[in-house]
Amino acid sequence: MVVAQAELPQALALAGGLAAELGVRPVAASVRELGSFAGVTALLERAGQARVIGVMDDASALIFQQIAAARGAGLAMDSHRRIGAVSLVSFAIHT
Predict the structure, then answer these.
(1) What is the mean pLDDT of residues 17-42?
(2) Per-residue pLDDT reduced to its tens digit, 48-86
């Protein structure tokens, strides 16, 4: 599963490219979903036992990763990049 922050076109574009390479459709999640326990939990449950790749802003990534870790997921990769004025984090976790 590839999750992108819906409000950031740069995140959607990057996630779209990753999803195309993996042959999956990206999931656009709002900052409200990414910032809540219920929202992140729903995304993780939707992913099941699959790998989750996320592309979002720093704060959303931190919240997502912490909730995933509390549920036993392991962080496999974490990278930070700047696209114009937007700072993005992309990460992969194993649920």
Answers:
(1) 95
(2) 888 999 999 999 999 999 999 999 998 888 888 888 888
Q: Using CA atoms, how far apart are residues 67 and 35, in angstroms rounded to an integer?
A: 10
Distance CA 64, CA 84 (A): 23
Question: Could you give the number of structural domains in the chain?
Answer: 1
Q: How many residues does the chain have?
A: 95
Q: Strand 51-56 relative to strand 74-83: parallel, antiparallel, unpaired?
A: unpaired
Residue 77 belongs to what domain range? 2-94
Considering the entire predicted model, what is its pTM?
0.90
Question: Using alpha carbons only, what angle is made at residue 9 by residues 3 and 13, rounded to the nearest 5 degrees?
Answer: 60
